[in-house]
Amino acid sequence: MKPSILPPVQGSPCGKCNMAGKQVFEIDTQEVIIFESAFAHKLLSDGPTFSLGTTCVYKCAFCYVIPMILKQTAVQGVLKEIRPDGRTLEDVVIRRHGALDRLYQMLTIEKPKWVNLRKKQVVFTSPLVDAAANMELARETAAACEMIFELTNWDVRVLSKSSLLPKVVEMVPEKFRQRLIMGVSTGTLDDGLAQSFEIGTALVSKRLTSLYKMQDEGHRTFGMLCPILPQADYDAYAEQALKAIRVDRCEHVWAEVLNVRGDSFDATCKALMACGFKEEADRLNKVFGLKAGDAWEKYSRAIFEALAKRVPAGKLRFMQYVNPKNLQWWAKQRSRGAVLLGTLAP
């Protein structure tokens, strides 16, 4: 599948239409696919990842992306244009001009010599934006997957907070569908609670319905319990969450506590309080507030233990950032499904 190669955009970003009430900007980009990424450490890919956009249609309070992209020249150009209106990057969608063309170029004429397209491996999408936030983006993702299947021997792992992944599957030719591995984020199972800090996403109940549809049709799926907020009863949460994703039909199950980057902790607490979820906000404050002490570590271990008791180690992939104080304990849990992250991770 070869797109018509387009020249790169020259000059500053230009405003486009809107998605979900957000103005869309289109920027030039040189890198759509990363052939070696940290997502290999998370076991979500064997190294490669691709992103067809830079900022998302959704607006999740805990999102870690914005701090990662702030220094990019093109992103600074967007910021310069929106700051006079008091907007931030969370208020706009940034798409990548000719993203499919760039993907094709990077897999063909610009492919590094050391990259083996015939080796069986998994590429993950998307580290930066939701891959199927609306039908336009779902179509773009399906086209990218088809291109990868035509040009490589890779499988594609797709993660989304939408309910449109079955549409992505339908748009990929049937001969390639068993090379798709589809998952929806379901760290919070209650629709109202999830909507308080995952702004604009599909209801979790609808995401689960889409997951069941793919599972019932025999497609490959995985679980993503992330982020998991502090719970009143971790065993009860684990039972409910694993039943909800039909863990027996998932190839693997990833799980993670709240990933605190930038102001994600404060933003999540404020979002919970604003929607009347005081108890949940209080629990979060107790594990991360000024007087939390080692409560964050206890919170992480409680979730891990509850899941590890119920999910085979070969299927569970519990992502945990380690530090000098907790490294030894978590290193001993790798055989039970712990995936150690951070600079100290082996």
Protein architecture, described:
- The chain is built from twelve helices and 16 strands.
- It has helices at 65-69, 73-82, 99-107, 135-151, 165-171, 191-197, 204-216, 234-244, 264-274, 278-288, 295-308, 327-331; strands at 14-19, 22-27, 33-34, 49-50, 53-55, 59-60, 92-96, 122-125, 155-160, 180-184, 198-199, 220-221, 223-228, 253-257, 316-321, 338-341.
- It has a four-stranded mixed β-sheet with strand order 1-2-7-5.
- Helix 5 links the parallel strand 9 and strand 10.
- The two termini are 40 Å apart.
Highest CATH level, the class of the domain at 37-48 and 116-341 = Alpha Beta
Q: In what order do the strands lie side by side in the largest sheet? A: 1-2-7-5
Strand content: 15-25%
Task: State the major sheet.
Answer: 4 strands, mixed
Average pLDDT for all residues: 92
* Total number of helices: 12
The secondary-structure class comes to alpha/beta
Question: How is the topology of this model organized?
Answer:
Layout: E1 14-19, E2 22-27, E3 33-34, E4 49-50, E5 53-55, E6 59-60, H1 65-69, H2 73-82, E7 92-96, H3 99-107, E8 122-125, H4 135-151, E9 155-160, H5 165-171, E10 180-184, H6 191-197, E11 198-199, H7 204-216, E12 220-221, E13 223-228, H8 234-244, E14 253-257, H9 264-274, H10 278-288, H11 295-308, E15 316-321, H12 327-331, E16 338-341
Parallel strand pairs: 2-7, 8-9, 9-10, 10-12, 13-14, 14-15, 15-16
Antiparallel strand pairs: 1-2, 3-4, 5-7, 6-11
Helix pairs in contact: 3-4, 4-5, 8-11, 9-10
Quick description:
This protein is an alpha/beta fold and 346 residues long.
